[in-house]
Amino acid sequence: MSNTETSLVWSEADQRAVDTARVLAADAVEKVGNGHPGTAISLAPAAYLLFQRHLRHDPSDADWLGRDRFILSPGHTSLTLYLQLFLSGYGLEMKDLEALRTWGALTPGHPEYGHTAGVEMTTGPLGQGLATSVGFAYAQRRLRGLFDAEAPAGTSPFDHRVYVIASDGDLQEGVTAEASSLAGHQQLGNLVVIYDDNKISIEDDTDVAFTEDVLARYEAYGWHTQKVDWTKTGEYVEDLDALDAAIKAAEAETSKPSIISLRTIIGWPSPGKQNTGGIHGSKLGAEELAGLKTVLGFDPEAHFAIDADVLAHARSVSERGAAAHAEWDAAMSAWRERTSPELVAEYERITRGEFPDGWLDSLPVFEAGKAVSTRVASGQVINAVAPVLPELWGGSADLAGSNNTTIEGAKSFNPVEWTTKSWNADPAGRVLHFGIREHAAAAIVNGIVTSSTTRAFSGTFLIFSDYQRPAIRLSALMGIPSIYVWTHDSIGLGEDGPTHQPVEQLASLRAIPNLDVIRPADANETAQAWRRMLEIQDHPTGIVLTRQNVPTFPRGEEGFASAELVSRGGYTLKDASNGAPEVILIGTGSEVQLAVEAQAALEAEGVPTRVVSMPSIEWFRAQSAEYRELVLPAAVRARVAVEAASSQGWHEFVGDAGRLVTLDHFGASADEKTLYTEFGITTAAVIEAARASIAATA
Predict the structure, then answer these.
(1) Among residues 649, 583, 638, 580, which one has the least CA distance to residue 614?
(2) pLDDT digits (tens, 9 = 90+) for 525-557
(3) Strand partners, 395
(4) Cβ neighbours of residue 540 closer than 8 Å, sequence gap 6 or more
(5) Which residues contact 348 (CB under 8 A, 6 or more apart)?
(6) Looking at the annotation, which residues are catalytic?
(7) What are 11-36's pLDDT values in tens digits?
(8) DSSP per-residue string spanning 265-325
(9) What angle do CA 141, 389, 156 make, to 5 degrees?
(10) CA-CA distance, 114 to 128, in Å (whole number)?
């Protein structure tokens, strides 16, 4: 829907629609008594210009695959988006604006993915929208390269743009620096950002903390930069011709991402509160609201009012959207005609989120008795399934060799000029290199999986999940299938010491609702964990992997259960010799081997002992009460949990008589065997804990 005219046509009806949006923003916040009216008032013309003249979208089909994407990064100004969705006809009506920030409303305080049609992602934590939009742009380029690489630029139905409105607050957050650096490196010409440079934040003038030259920074990142200053004449003039021309120039620049610094006055033309922190995050008040309406030529006594002809004019964008949709449908039909049936079928399968027939046959089965680290096993699983799942792609935050996240033989997702001695680059490659930018890595993967049905993963050390936490939490909140690969899972990483040895990370990640954390015990559990993670499409998962080798258990032999039970989250790995355990040993990851060794010793003493492997607490909790009772019968109160991490969360499973072999302090620098011994995470400690638990039940 991008405007190809040389000059902007802006009618009186357009201006009236913009001014109506301003007063509706003020009305909505005034009614609920809280919110952020200022930016929604001053950005109304910019947002309207995007939705009416530039954004290719179809309000009758918010999920249309051919649409451009719009992301409002400063989610607190949610009305900036809601008002355009209302004016465009996405299903929001006046009653929804009146219900702003109230229970059950389609207009919550910040835009929420999956809740309101037209909202592309949840935005609230500043920086996440802009950072995630880089992943949106990644996904577009990857899909085009997969399915229509030879089409001339701008002619493919897989071409679309990603538009972002960002704020001073977004650009102060570190995650946007990480992601913007990558966007410039990647030469993402499909990304257009309008930066609302209003110089006001909650603490009033941004001069107290933010005085850098933003455009100089972005130019250094490799972005195309422009400035539109509506204050340059000394008076405030909303020069929409200048903004429109800047957006067109950004759209024409296909070799770089673009940022337009738009100098605005927050809350203009509110007569008394414009250009103050007071209009940023609070209602105007009755007198100021009346003043705003008077300045704009509205009845100060009327609330939530819009002229029918103004609404009809704004909603005529749906006609243009329908026409653009029809053009795209024709382009897709032409693509199907000129493309091999196999590739078309692959596209349709991936779009539906389905798996190819027989894909499970590609999962490796690991030889029993051979010790292998689960990080190595994970890398082998990725490479085994990659040939049959072209939708799978990902990489590491500069730790590919340690995380084992590289798809061997695949090209890097990079402009060709960034080919190195070690990596061959291709704009549509599937190996991602995030550099040392863990937070951006998580946000970019969020953008990839939110805006496409490809499956993407990022890798780093478990300890650095702390750097990713806001993006991890956001993926869980949105219910998107991001995959996190975390290696070096415990004190087992050894000599790097306590700065790198995760202790509290497992418990804190498990505390995030709607996130599954999986810590497999051996190579075959790792393979089955990947199977289940790939099958999950409505929430994120994270796999936690060892640096050190661990034994591969003899599945189906010597009493060891099948690794396919991993999908249950917790299962009886090896039961008591008589099938009636006196004590249950529960372990995860590398510590399961300690439970297995302890079982042998206890059985030799005549103590029937069950070993339960619990790679995922979340998956286990999701099982039926009957299944959980089968694995952890309430009658068996003697229990031990062993994990080289914080004890937090394990009391739920061991009960009042249970014992814990865990780690509630930081690690140290030494080899793994020394650390496990010195910190008392040993087979002997598990045996002692089992005896103590049995005694406690007497």
Answers:
(1) 649
(2) 999 999 999 999 999 999 999 999 999 999 999
(3) 432, 458
(4) 472, 475, 476, 480, 481, 482, 483, 484, 514, 515, 516
(5) none
(6) 438
(7) 999 999 999 999 999 999 999 999 99
(8) -TTTT-TTTTTSGGGTSS---HHHHHHHHHHHT--TT--S---HHHHHHHHTHHHHHHHHH
(9) 30
(10) 17
DSSP 89: T
Gap between the Cα atoms of 343 and 354, Å rounded = 15
| Reported pTM | 0.98
**Is pLDDT at 1 greater than 70 in this prediction?**
no
Task: Report whether pLDDT(5) > 60.
Answer: no
pLDDT of residue 51: 98
Distances, alpha carbon 349 to alpha carbons 64, 381, 390, 580, in Å: 17, 21, 11, 47
Amino acid identity of residue 84, one-letter, is Q
Structure tokens at 110: 């910040």
How far apart are the two ends of the chain, measured CA to CA in Å? 76
Where in 318-420 does DSSP place strands (E)? Answer: 392-396, 412-413
Q: Are 433 and 181 in contact (CB under 8 A)?
A: no
HSE at residue 265, side-chain half, CA atoms within 13 A, is 18
β-strands 69-72, 571-574 pairing: unpaired
C-alpha–C-alpha distance, residues 144 and 151, integer Å: 9
Name the nearest CA neighbour of 27 among 126, 85, 90, 98: 98
Closest by Cα among 117, 72, 77, 119 to 101: 77
Q: Which of 460, 463, 551, 448 is nearest to 503 (CA)?
A: 463
Q: Is a pLDDT exceeding 80 seen at residue 659?
A: yes
Quick check: 643 pLDDT over 60?
Answer: yes
pLDDT, tens digit, for every residue of 39-51? Answer: 999 999 999 999 9
What does the radius of gyration of the chain's CA atoms come to, in whole angstroms? Answer: 28
Paired strand residues for 659: 640
Q: For residue 214, what is the DSSP state?
A: H
Residue 250 CB neighbour total at 10 angstroms: 26
For residue 431, pLDDT beyond 70: yes
Nearest C-alpha neighbor of 45 from the set 12, 17, 82, 67 = 17
Alpha carbon 239 to its chain's center:
36
Rounded Cα–Cα distance for residues 39 and 207 (Å): 18
Calpha distance 335→177 (Å, rounded): 37
Q: Are 636 and 575 in contact (CB under 8 A)?
A: no
- CA distance linking residue 2 with residue 625, whole number of Å: 55
Residue type, 605: E
Rounded to whole angstroms, the Cα distance separating 572 from 654 reads 15
Which residues 6+ apart lie within 8 Å of 385 measured at CB?
359, 362, 363, 392, 530, 534
Q: Could you tell me which residues come within 8 angstroms of residue 680 by beta carbon, excluding any fewer than 6 positions away?
A: 661
Phi, psi of 263 (to 5 degrees): -80, 115
